[in-house]
Amino acid sequence: MKMSRELNLLKKSAGYKEVRTGRHCVFMLHVHLVFVTKYRKKIFDQRHINYLRDVFSKVCKDFDAELSEIEGVADHVHLLVNYPPKICISKLVNSLKGVSSRKLKQKFSELKEYYWKNALWSPSYFAGSCGGAPLEVIKKYIENQSTVSPT
What we know:
By secondary structure, the protein is α+β, with helices and mostly antiparallel strands. The chain contains 4 helices and 6 strands. The protein has a single domain (about 30-145), classed as 2-Layer Sandwich (Alpha-Beta Plaits). Helix content is about 35%, strand content about 25%. A 4-stranded antiparallel sheet has the order 4-5-3-6, covered by helices on one side. The longest helix has 19 residues, at about 90-105. The radius of gyration is 19 Å and the shape is elongated. The model has no long low-confidence stretch (mean pLDDT about 85).
């Protein structure tokens, strides 16, 4: 019961509206992902970005994650994903890129010419953790915790 009281306090405080719960944990994990097209080909327009929003949302839902934000330009997309601690980011990324590549090719035949060896995305990606308090604030908070002596 104490956990649920603490959770309610966290959710009510500013900046912690996206606190989620698992069976044995309370979490708020976000990752900023950037996917770049193969050879940075400028191929996307707004129709593609809107379609990717739907595809990425469905893939995230399969992973029990939430797509918080997506935006893109002609040669890359940015995603903000809220995910549970059980998720391996690299597996989520592989699924996001694989499913979106396949679905885009099915839906937009004009993109097929931009696929190189059946791949739309560059094999690399950016993943950055984000959200919560800045690192310096967390460091100071931890430093200021008093050490409890064993009883």
